[in-house]
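chain below, 257 aa
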Amino acid sequence: MSVRENVTLEASRVLVVNDAHLGQDLEVPSREREARLVSLLREKAPEADLVVLLGDIFDFWFEYRRAIPRRFFPLLATLYHLARTTRVVFVEGNHDLWMEDFFPEELGIPVVREGVDLDLSGVRVRLVHGDLLDGLSLGGKTTRKVLGHPLLKTCFRWIHPDVGIALAHGVARLSRSRSDHEEVPEERLVEGARRVLEEGYNLLVMGHLHQVLARKVGEGYVLVTGDWMRHFTYGWLEPDRFEVRRFPSHEVVARLP
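prediction:
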């Protein structure tokens, strides 16, 4: 199977981006969000030795055997060329969990379901999308198990792409409209982060919540990197600083420690 559960990496400068939900037109149209993401990758990725796509880059992704979504060609082409010179890894989110072998085999970008264990020059970091974190997404693990069932994917494959993708985006729109009105209490986030940090990590980095948050939890830190839908923020990690920056100014909007 091309998709792994976890991956362990080493790096010293890391670019993190998440929650672009490409394919769904919102306040900023999808094509404009994609163009901004391509610009970010061209501008900042050469300064990094690892790029982590931390889930929900696509509002919906499905791999037909002989077709790929044409509307994402600019980003896919950029990622293909980027992966020739810079290590890139894709962590599945709850919207793009139907990934199989296209990214690993055609783009050279490994895909992981749960997250990345990162040695940041001696700093132990855990990077996850966030929907599987205890207390953050009710039924997150069950939802992934149901939606990721091979039988469901097999049935969906028989639907013409023009129909299937439109249908999936409609369902995703309804799902997000409900989640947009659900605020996660900070104490739930802190408790979920604490459980991860107690496993020996110094820093937890995540998306999913569509907000920016940086705070100390116990002896470690949690950094929530916002989104690429409204905030256009991204994470930048170095051994002595963990930042959330805003594009295109690259101003620092949150910093740890």
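The helical segments are 30-44, 73-82, 102-107, 140-147, 150-157, 161-180, 186-197. The mean pLDDT is 86.
thats it, cya
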